[in-house]
Design goal:
single chain, 433 residues, alpha+beta, six-stranded antiparallel sheet, 24% helix, 27% strand
Amino acid sequence: MLLSKLIKSSFLISITILFTSCANKNVEIEDIKKYPQEAKFYLNEDLEFKEQDKYNKKFFEIYFRVWDNPTIKISKKEANWAVKFKNENIYLQNYSKASKSWFEKHFENSNFEEFKTELIKAITIKNSNVRVLPTKEMMFYNPYNAGQGFPFDYNQNSHIKINTPVLISHFSKDKAWAYIKTPSFFGWINTSDLAFVDEKFVNEFKTNSYAITIKDKLNIYDEFFIEKTQLGTIFPISKNSKYLLAKKDDKHNAYLKEIEIEDENITTQPLVFNNENIEKIANELIAEQYGWGGIFGFRDCSSFTQDFYTTFGIYLGRNSRQQTFSGKYFNIKELSNEEKKEFIIKNAKPFKTLIYLKGHIMLYVGVSNDEPLVMHNVWGVKTKVYLNKKGRNIIGKNVITTLEFGKELLNYDDSNTVIDKLQGFVILDEEKN
C-alpha cells in the first residue's frame, strides 16, 4: 500500500513538473513555421474593393464628425462605466490591491458633474494613450493568473494618433486630463497632448486632400524630432504639396505647420486596394509586437485590422464587436468546428473578411492545406498547467495562423478554443444584412 501511494505521488509530481515547465517555457507554435509569414503567398487572385471612393468619403465623414456635429449622445452613466471596477478585486502596477480610497480619489477627480459642459473642439498633437480613469496608473485583475496581469492594463482604453480631431466633454478637477470623444471611442487623455481649435483652424485643416502614412514607426521632424508615427496617420495636404501637422502655441491653441515626409513613407488616401498595396501594408504590420489597447504604441487585434483598412479609406470601429457591423455578417456560431471551416472556405473573401469571436478579431487571408488562414495580433495560446490552473504560451505579435493555432503543444488547452468560440465573420465590401 505504501509503495502504491509513493508511485502515485511520484506520478502526480512528474505530471505537475511537466505541465509547469511547459507553461513557463514559451515555444514558437508550429503554424508560424509551417505557413509563410508574408502576404504575397496568399494573394492568389487579383483583388479590388467595390466603390472604394464611396467608402473613403464615408471615412472622412466619420473622422470629422466630432467637429462637424459637436454633440455627445452617450449618457453620464455610460461615460462613467468604470465605476464597476470599485466592486472588483483590482491590482495596481506594483501588484498591490487598489483600495476603496484609491478608486474614490480617481472618481472624484473624474468630475462627471461637469459632463458635456465644455464641448470644445480640439486636436491631438502627440500620439497618446486614452485612459479609462484619469491616471497613468495601471489596473490589472489578478496578475498572478495567466491572462490577467501584464499587458492587460484595464485602465488602458485605447491609443490615439497625432493629428486626430476630438471633442472635449469636460476636464478633470485637477485640469490635468480631458474626457474626449474621438471618431470611434471615448476616454481620458492628458490635457498637454491636446490643442484647442477654432473654425478658422478647422477650415484650414479640412483641405479635402489627405495623405496617410504607409510606413510604421516612422519618425517625423520639423527642425527637431516630433513623433514616431504609426502606419495609418492622416495628414492634410497643403497648397504647397506639403503635409500639415497640428501644433500648439503657449495658450494651448492649435496652429498648422508644414512638414516634409519622404514619398516612400506616405501616399494620398485612399491607397488603391490591390494586391501590390495589400502586400505592402500587411508586411509592414506582420510580426509587430502585441499591444493591449494600443499600449506602448503597439497594436492589439482590432487596432491592427482598423489601421490595415484605414490606409485604404475604409472605416472600422475601434473594438472587435463594432467591426462586425462594417459589412455583411454571417453567423456561424451554431456550426460544428469542421462546418465552420468549410463555411469560411466557401464564403469568405481573402483580405476583405474579418473573422470574429468575443474579444478577438482576425483578418482572413485565404486557404492552405485545406485550412482557412488568418492574420491577427494575438497575445498567446491558452494552456493547462496543473489541475484547474491555466497558463499561456506567449506569441505576443502579429502572425498568420490557422484557426487552431498551437494545438500541437503538449499542454494545449483544448477546452473552449478559438475555433470553438467563433461566432461569425463579416465581408467588408458587401452590403450589411
